[in-house]
Inverse folding.
């Protein structure tokens, strides 16, 4: 949508001009699931003035029933019409901030968590935290696996453009829809796995990008459904194939200039950039349960399938957790770090918030960035990695959530209310998974034990 509204008055004018009948109010629960309720256009004045009340007790991670009254305050800058709804009597959406009846920001609202982290960056003199995530996903014939295995649409590989890429039409429609929603798409291609795809959004300030990630996921799913398919952001849906990642490019700006760039450094990285990267490497293990938040996430984070698990950085080496893309003369503003471990099923608000806070901690405390690791880290023995001081990400959600539970940084980022809820929910998920008896165990042990 070309003319992005900025105020409530702009939104009301657009609703009239475009004959919008319903407006969906979107927000996100603690796990990053999109929630929505719809209002009639006649309710817009009330919504902007006082917000729309709802019962938060049924929303994952929100308050219990005795204090469940919540208010959704629409953000007019996020107004956009939904391209998959009918053109006449159209439907639009706005993201909301959640507040309590006393008009305080609700501490269980993921948008509020990210806003607090951005305010901390501003207090340290940084005006913009730019994020460019690359979300990968799979198309399957249906959501219910047939005979225990999801049915793929093609056997295509990385960048394939042949009859193998059955998803190219739906992908094109998805890109056009994203652009109508004000999301700039840089490029799109078939990924390494069969039936796996990637659509890359142009980087944007963190809050807009977190909103855009939520929009992207629903748009990808809506357009897959039009073709009778199911799109999934599950990190590792196919055994023995690459999983889906969300490589996350990040940079900080100060007075319109890239704070990560230094012309006189051998890596063209400023002290700020180095300390920011060092902060993310140092805290990676304790924030792992935020950027890789599901039991299934840790089936992706294993050596050998392009997913990085070793806490090191590099310029070319994709086995490291952090890659710093090579500097091209004249492209100072593009200096950035790429964190390769998050997956696309995370809560983007919480993920960007903890990444920012870990980086800021590095800047504030002057963390030293170790030397880059330009060799393939998968080929080092455990002893060699230990000697080099290279840590590894947690191997399970159970291990990850216990590290988070001890983390001062995550507690400060999420706030006590959300921190306690998150740890509780994730411990429960791990416990439920841990007691399952899988087909692998039955096949392996039943005949011989």
């Amino acid at each position: 949508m070309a003319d992005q509204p900025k105020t409530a008055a702009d939104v009301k004018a657009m609703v009239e001009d475009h004959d919008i009948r319903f407006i969906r109010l979107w927000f996100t629960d603690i796990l990053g699931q999109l929630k929505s309720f719809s209002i009639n256009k006649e309710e817009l004045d009330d919504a902007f003035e006082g917000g729309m009340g709802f019962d938060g007790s049924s929303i994952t991670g929100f308050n219990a029933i005795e204090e469940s009254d919540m208010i959704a305050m629409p953000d007019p800058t996020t107004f956009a019409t939904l391209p998959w709804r009918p053109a006449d009597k159209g439907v639009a959406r706005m993201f909301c901030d959640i507040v309590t009846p006393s008009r305080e920001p609700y501490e269980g609202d993921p948008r509020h968590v990210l806003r607090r982290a951005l305010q901390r960056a501003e207090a340290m003199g940084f005006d913009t935290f730019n994020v460019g995530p690359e979300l990968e996903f799979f198309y399957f014939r249906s959501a219910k696996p047939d005979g225990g295995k999801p049915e793929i649409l093609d056997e295509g590989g990385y960048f394939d453009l042949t009859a193998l890429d059955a998803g190219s039409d739906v992908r094109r429609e998805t890109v056009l829809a994203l652009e109508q929603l004000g999301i700039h798409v840089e490029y799109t291609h078939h990924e390494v796995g069969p039936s796996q795809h990637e659509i890359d959004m142009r980087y944007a300030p963190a809050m807009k990008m977190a909103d855009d990630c939520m929009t992207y996921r629903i748009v990808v799913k809506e357009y897959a459904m039009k073709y009778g398919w199911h799109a999934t952001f599950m990190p590792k849906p196919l055994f023995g194939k690459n999983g889906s990642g969300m490589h996350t490019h990040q940079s900080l700006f100060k007075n319109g200039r890239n704070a990560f760039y230094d012309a006189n450094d051998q890596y063209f990285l400023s002290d700020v950039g180095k300390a920011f990267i060092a902060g993310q490497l140092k805290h990676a293990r304790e924030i792992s349960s935020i950027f890789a938040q599901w039991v299934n996430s840790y089936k992706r984070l294993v050596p050998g399938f392009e997913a990085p698990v070793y806490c090191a950085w590099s310029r070319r080496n994709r086995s490291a957790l952090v890659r710093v893309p090579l500097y091209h003369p004249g492209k100072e503003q593009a200096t950035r770090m790429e964190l390769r471990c998050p997956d696309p099923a995370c809560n983007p608000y919480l993920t960007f918030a903890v990444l920012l806070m870990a980086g800021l901690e590095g800047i504030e405390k002057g963390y030293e960035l170790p030397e880059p690791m330009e060799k393939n880290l998968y080929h080092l023995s455990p002893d060699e990695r230990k000697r080099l001081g290279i840590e590894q990400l947690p191997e399970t959600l159970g291990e990850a959530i216990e590290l988070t539970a001890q983390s001062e940084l995550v507690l400060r980022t999420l706030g006590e209310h959300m921190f306690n809820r998150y740890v509780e929910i994730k411990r429960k998920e791990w416990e439920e998974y841990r007691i399952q008896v899988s087909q692998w165990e039955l096949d392996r042990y039943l005949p011989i034990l």
Observations:
- The chain is about 35% helix and 20% strand.
